[in-house]
Amino acid sequence: MACPFFSLPVSDSxxxxxxxxxxTSTAAIVSWFGFAIWATYLVFVEGxxxxxxxxxxxxxTQAYLLAAACGIYLATLxxxxxxxxxxxxxxxxxxxxxxxxxxxxxxxxxxxxLVLIWSGVGRNTTLAAAILAICLYAVLTDLAHYRKAAAAFxxxxxxxxxxxxxxxxxxxxxxxxxKMIGQRVFFEEMAELLGYVLILLSSIAANAYLSGMSIRxxxxxxxxx
Length: 225
What we know:
The chain is mostly helical. The chain is built from 10 helices and 2 strands, in the order βαβααααααααα. The chain has a two-stranded antiparallel ribbon. Helix 2 runs antiparallel to helix 9. The longest helix has 23 residues. The radius of gyration is 19 Å and the shape is globular. The two termini are about 15 Å apart. The N terminus and C terminus are likely disordered.
């Protein structure tokens, strides 16, 4: 398939995933920077701290980004013929877990049973059980194949974007714990927002229809069905 990425003038020693960037990714990152400038003005000049409050604009945006990423991963899993579907299921589960982390379901008008499942111990238990089920399935079917597929995914553009998103989530966590930083919650939320933007871009890059290409490090007939 034709590749929508354009080459960037960087060193050949840089990993391939960083040497090429598509227009969608560029637009998303530029949009984040624009939002960051606007949000910084509101918080530090206008004093509008509600922007990063619980269930405020930033957290709501994070939840929508994660929901979109989760949906795209699941759509790719369901609609594309490929042999790395277990990895896509794990990615969608990761997004689902992050959604529950960001959304305060206790404040929603939903049945108590769903609150118990989607929050606290119930949330952690169900996520742990799902992760264990995925790992057991890989072990009992073809562990060597999934190890190879996982390594290929980590070297691919979607994998690099997903890991980069994880890095920004860790940065946000470190900022939140540093009490010497003024308005640390705001900076934490902005770092997490960028992380979730990168995770959404990962889901888009993993989808052959949306990205207009196959995952770069996967060869036809090898890891794709």
